[in-house]
Structure formats: C-alpha cells, structure tokens
Write a structure and sequence with these properties.
By secondary structure, the protein is of the alpha/beta class. The chain is 47% helix and 11% strand. The longest helix is centred in the middle third of the chain and has 29 residues, at 162-190. Bound molecules: zinc ion. Residues 70, 137, 204, 206, 228, 282 line the site of zinc ion (ZN). One of its GO terms (molecular function) is metal ion binding.
Length: 316
C-alpha cells in the first residue's frame, strides 16, 4: 500500500527539506521573488552591496551605468521596488537629489532606509557654493568605503535572518580585504606625484575625500559647487583659468561623461590650454567597460591622476 507513494514521497521530502533550509537561510524557497529585496540607489554602493550579499538577497540598483548620481530618477516600476523593499541602501548627504521624494515616500511607508554617508565621518566642503555643507562623495576615499562596508554589514544584520548573515559576514570580510589592498595601491600610486604638484582641478567638487586622505589639494572646479546641477558663471570660469595658471596645473580632471562639454567650455570661454583627462568620478560604467566595479574605478582614477600631474600621457 505504501510502496507507490513512498517512492514519490522521497524526492518531495528532499525538496521540502531543501526549502526549509532555504527558508531558514534566506526566508525563501529558491524563488528569487521570495528572497529579501534590497534596493540600492547608486551603482557604486550597488557593487558594494552585491559583493556582500551575493545571492542571499535580490539587489535592485536604481542608478544606471554612466549616469549622474545628482540627477537620475526612477521609473514607476523602480519606485514600486522602493516602496516594497526590505531595505534601501542610499548614499545620502544630499547626493541623490532626483530621488529625494521617492526616499521620503518609502520612509513614510516604514521601509528601512540606510543612508551610509552620515555614518562615515563626513567632511564639509571648504569652498564654492556648497561651502559648509556635507560632501557626499565619500567613495573617493577607499578607507571610508571600508567603513561603509562595516555600516552596511551591521544594518544587514538587523534586517536579514541569521543564516544568511553567516554567509554575508564571510563575503564582507573577504571584500574588506580587497578594499584594504585597494587603499594601499591607491596610496602608492598617488604618492608618485611630488608634493608641490598635488593640485586637483575637477569638473565639480568631487574629490575632497581623496584629497583629504592622500594629501592632495583641491584648488578649483569648473562648477564651483558640490553638485553637477549648478552651472558655472563667466566669473567662475575666469577664476578657474586664473587658478590653473597661478598653480601651473598641467591637467584637469572631469567626469568621463562630461569631458567634451567641459573642454569646449574651457577652450571657448576661458581660453585655457590644459589637458582635460576623463575620470570615472561619480558612476560605474557598463560591466565590460573600464570601470565596471568600484575597485577598478578607483585604480584607474588614481593612475590617471598620477600620470596627468606628472606630465605623462593618461593611461587607458
Ligand atoms: Zn558629484
């Protein structure tokens, strides 16, 4: 009597056991729909979160590759992800200006929102129109990104179940090691520039944290503001051209997506002859391009800054 059903029951029991394990581990049963849902605003933090959680959660990154973190918005579907997420990880400190209303809306529906920036000892802008406000571009300092991993791991521990956290702790530990190596590599690369040439001119104030950590100085910016949403006046461009001449700056650094526009502005309006070097300052690229992950992005930027300020051709 039990012969037929028993033969079929064995695999079902095995599947149920697997499901129970999965339920304990990730509150799901193998279906991606049932894994915890984590929404990350920027693609830089998206890479970090993905490195930590692996397949223990569904990660939705809102900011597209090669986008501007100050201005990107979300689709209706993505707004829906935000409202039903188990956790939203945001950069904060005013970076995601285009998402402010969506983040407020998610909070009003009791979705937990972690704004990483406020936990990593933020710096204030010391000049320009954003002077005195907190600078959100903390990822340009790999040391602060290690702190960010600690902050995100701690918050995941509060929101996810213990089985998943055992695996996430291992991933976090391993990724932290990679970031420590990155920090040493960037320090070594940037130390190749003599102290009197460590002067950065950028398209907006984006490298304050890098300058602070590695003993560089931000002497000017085409958009003298902490956001790309501001626009330079003619007086700002005059000031910039004077700054470039006074400091004998050989190269200025712009975001790769805005290089041509900036070069044109300088050539037409400021009359400055200076090399314009593209960096991946605010966004990852597509995965198959140069800066598809945070570590590659930082390595390339450090190499191009060092080459640009020592008068070598920028590396590709
Ligand atoms: Zn920015």
């Amino acid at each position: 009597m039990r012969h037929g059903p028993a033969r079929r029951a064995a695999p079902i029991a095995a599947v149920l056991t697997l499901c129970l394990s999965a339920l304990l581990a990730i509150a799901g049963c193998g279906s991606s729909q049932e894994r915890p849902s984590i929404v990350v605003t920027t693609n830089i933090l998206g890479d970090v979160v993905q490195n930590l959680v692996g397949d223990n959660a569904e990660v939705h990154v809102l900011m597209k590759p090669n986008a501007d973190p100050h201005s990107f918005g979300v689709s209706a579907q993505e707004a829906g992800y935000m409202e039903t997420a188990d956790l939203i990880v945001a950069n904060g400190l005013g970076l995601e200006e285009g998402l402010a209303a969506n983040l407020d809306n998610a909070r009003s529906q009791d979705v937990p929102v972690l704004e990483v920036g406020e936990h990593i000892d933020p710096l204030e802008y010391s000049s320009g129109s954003s002077s005195g406000t907190e600078d959100p571009h903390f990822w340009t300092d790999p040391g602060r990104m290690i702190e960010a991993v600690d902050v995100i791991e701690e918050r995941l521990d509060e929101e996810l179940d213990p089985g998943a956290m055992d695996r996430i702790r291992d991933s976090a530990s391993s990724y932290r090691g990679e970031l420590e190596q990155l920090d040493r590599d960037v320090a070594e690369t940037l130390s190749e520039v003599p102290a009197d040439r460590r002067k950065l001119v950028t398209n907006h104030h984006v490298f304050g944290y890098l300058a602070d950590r590695f003993d560089y100085e931000v002497v000017g910016a085409v958009i003298p503001s902490g956001t790309t949403l501001a626009a330079p006046s003619a007086a700002d461009l005059n000031d910039l051209s004077e700054t470039i001449r006074a400091n004998d700056v050989p190269a200025i650094f712009v975001d790769s997506s805005q290089q041509q526009k900036l070069a044109d502005v300088l050539a037409d309006e400021a009359g400055v002859d200076v090399e314009v070097i593209p960096l991946y300052s605010e966004s990852l690229t597509e995965p198959e391009q140069d800066a598809g992950d945070y570590i590659s992005m930082q390595e390339i930027n450090a190499a191009r800054i060092a080459d640009g300020l020592t008068g070598q051709r920028p590396s590709d």
